Structure formats: C-alpha cells, structure tokens
C-alpha cells in the first residue's frame, strides 16, 4: 500500500517518518563542511616536534656478575617504572638474565616486554665484548667436559 504526501508523491506506507532525499543531502553537506573545517584547522596548526626520550647507556652496565644494586641502577637508567625497579631490583644479574618473556610479563605486566627486549640487547652487547663473560667461559668448560665424556663413553 502506498501513502500520498503533501507534494503528491507516492511513497511506501510507513516512510512518513524518514527524511527526504533533499534533507539527507543537506545533512551530509553540513557534515562534510564540518569535517573540512576540522581538517583544515589541524593542518593550519604548527607542527609539534615530539622529542623521544631514549634511555642512555647505563652508567653501571648490567653483566652476569651484577648484584642487586647494579641491577637496580641499570633498571633506573633504562627509565623503567618505579614498580619495575622495586620488583626486579632485588635480583642479581644472572637471575634477571634467566627470566623469559612470559615470566617478565607475569611480574611486570605489559612493561615486561620492554624489559625482555632491553635484556636481549644487553646480552648481545655482553656476547660481543672481547674476552667473553663468565657465563661464556662456564658454557665452554661444560661443552668441553661433555665432549670428553662422550668421547670416553664410545
């Protein structure tokens, strides 16, 4: 069934509450004008130069020989939150290096991913240093003992 409107147009019954095409177009034009104003306002504003704070190399580098004081200093130098410094600052270097990403996420929440990332970078730095670390020496001794055992058993 069709209902007539005041202009004599025929529309499906129940359409009386809907906006006419002209009203819709007018409303869309208003929205577009407002968007253009907002966009041009954003472009007209001076560009802000954001300064990204990068953590400085720690004054006390984190190593496999680091005690809790050095771990705490390293965490602070890397600009971790006070909560992270409190939670992880009681560990030694070897204890901190032994934590995996999931363990760090459990202890530190989302910031744990950043802790893990920084630890991974620190491990890489230690591995590149000449002379090697105590851990590398221990691993090397372990491998040579294991190799000798294997050769002796065959």
From TrEMBL:
Coiled coil: none
Localization per record: Cytoplasm
Organism domain of life: Eukaryota
SUPFAM superfamilies in the cross-refs: SAM/Pointed domain (SSF47769)
Cited InterPro entries: EPS8-like (IPR039801), SAM/pointed_sf (IPR013761), SAM_3 (IPR041418)
GO molecular function: actin binding
Region (Disordered): 1-23
UniProt KW keywords: Cytoplasm, Phosphoprotein, SH3 domain
One GO cellular component term: ruffle membrane
Signal peptide residues on this chain, from the entry's feature table: none
SAM domain mapped to chain residues: 60-120
GO biological process: positive regulation of ruffle assembly; regulation of Rho protein signal transduction; Rho protein signal transduction
A Pfam family hit: SAM_3
Family: Belongs to the EPS8 family.
Name of this protein: EPS8-like 2
Species name: Neovison vison
Lineage per the UniProt record: Eukaryota, Metazoa, Chordata, Craniata, Vertebrata
């Amino acid at each position: 069934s069709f209902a007539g409107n005041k202009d004599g147009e025929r529309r499906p019954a129940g359409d009386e509450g809907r906006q006419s095409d002209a009203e819709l177009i007018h409303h869309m034009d208003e929205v577009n004008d407002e968007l253009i104003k907002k966009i041009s306002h954003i472009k007209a504003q001076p560009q802000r130069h954001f300064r990204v704070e990068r953590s400085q190399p720690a004054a006390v580098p984190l190593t496999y020989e680091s005690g809790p004081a050095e771990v705490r200093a390293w965490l602070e130098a890397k600009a971790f939150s006070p909560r992270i410094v409190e939670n992880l600052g009681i560990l030694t270097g070897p204890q901190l290096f032994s934590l995996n990403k999931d363990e760090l996420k459990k202890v530190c929440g989302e910031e744990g991913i950043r802790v893990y990332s920084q630890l991974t970078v620190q491990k890489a730095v230690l591995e590149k240093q000449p002379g090697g670390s105590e851990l590398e020496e221990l691993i090397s001794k372990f491998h040579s003992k294991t190799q000798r055992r294997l050769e002796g058993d065959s």
